[in-house]
Amino acid sequence: MTSAAPSALRYRLAVLSRTLAAVGGGYVLTTLATMVAARFLPMGRADAVMTATMLSFAVFTCAVIWVFAARSAWRAWCGLAVPALALALLAWFGRVLP
Question: Where are the transmembrane segments (predicted)?
Answer without folding.
Answer: 20-41, 48-68, 74-93
